[in-house]
């Protein structure tokens, strides 16, 4: 998606350790019009897949998922990052290793919101090593529901997540795929 690639070139900030900051338009200050274009593009890609729910993870995925959901006319569920040690039996749970913070945490979704008949589109802002996406896929599988695919805003294709998830047979559509980046240059696939 050229609009997103151009915006990343213009306003993205590349940090050491392969981290791209997009705080000025995607996940801190938000360009809502850009979210609208992203949502429209996800709908163009997945609109004919019979999606019944969109699943994302707090916090940065929520806004993008909500705007996209308006095009699909389906509810959004966001997996919560669980802070307590006791996990009640009425939730599905999975482990995620944070790329940006390096910690492992549990994510949870209430069983009442993910049903076996659901066809779920997963949406997230970044795909790096694939841990967040894998955790979300596990929640959907635990519920006996179907993963229709994953819509990702920015895939860092120089990290293994994209290949890993695609090799599991999951359709992954990334709107901007970064082939390589250094502190002063960025190349898209
Ligand atoms: P993964 O689990 O694929 O390694 O990482 C995905 C998650 O880590 C995303 O939900 C995103 O919040 C965060 N993330 C990964 N790489 C970056 C990055 O370069 N910049 C930012 N801002 N977040 C990232």
TrEMBL record:
5-phospho-alpha-D-ribose 1-diphosphate binds at residues 128-132. It is found in: Cytoplasm. Pfam families: Pribosyltran. SUPFAM superfamilies: PRTase-like (SSF53271). It comes from the Bacteria. Converts the preformed base xanthine, a product of nucleic acid breakdown, to xanthosine 5'-monophosphate (XMP), so it can be reused for RNA or DNA synthesis. It is an enzyme of class 2 (transferase). The keyword Lipid metabolism does not apply. It catalyses: XMP + diphosphate = xanthine + 5-phospho-alpha-D-ribose 1-diphosphate. PANTHER family: HYPOXANTHINE/GUANINE PHOSPHORIBOSYLTRANSFERASE, XANTHINE PHOSPHORIBOSYLTRANSFERASE. GO terms for cellular component: cytoplasm. Signal peptide: none annotated. This is Xanthine phosphoribosyltransferase. Keywords: Cytoplasm, Glycosyltransferase, Purine salvage, Transferase. Belongs to the purine/pyrimidine phosphoribosyltransferase family. Xpt subfamily. Xanthine binds at residues 20, 27, 156. It comes from Pseudoflavonifractor capillosus ATCC 29799. Its EC number is 2.4.2.22. Homodimer. GO terms for biological process: purine ribonucleoside salvage; xanthine metabolic process; XMP salvage. GO terms for molecular function: xanthine phosphoribosyltransferase activity. Residues 33-156 form the Phosphoribosyltransferase domain. Pathway: Purine metabolism; XMP biosynthesis via salvage pathway; XMP from xanthine: step 1/1.
């Amino acid at each position: 998606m050229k609009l997103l690639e151009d915006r990343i070139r213009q306003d993205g900030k590349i940090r050491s350790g392969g981290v791209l900051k997009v705080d000025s338009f995607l996940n801190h200050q938000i360009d809502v019009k850009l979210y609208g274009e992203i949502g429209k593009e996800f709908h163009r890609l997945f609109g004919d897949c019979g999606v019944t729910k969109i699943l994302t993870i707090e916090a940065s995925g929520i806004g993008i998922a909500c705007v996209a959901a308006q095009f699909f006319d389906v509810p959004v569920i966001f997996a919560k990052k669980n802070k307590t040690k006791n996990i009640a039996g009425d939730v599905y749970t999975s482990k995620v290793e944070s790329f940006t913070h390096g910690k492992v945490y549990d994510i949870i979704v209430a069983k009442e919101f993910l049903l076996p008949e659901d066809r779920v589109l997963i949406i997230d802002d970044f795909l790096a090593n694939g841990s967040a996406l894998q955790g979300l896929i596990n929640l959907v599988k635990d519920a006996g529901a179907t993963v229709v695919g994953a819509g990702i805003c920015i895939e860092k294709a120089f990290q293994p997540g994209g290949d890993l998830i695609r090799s599991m047979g999951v359709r992954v559509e990334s709107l901007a795929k970064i082939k390589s980046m250094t502190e002063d240059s960025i190349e898209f696939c």
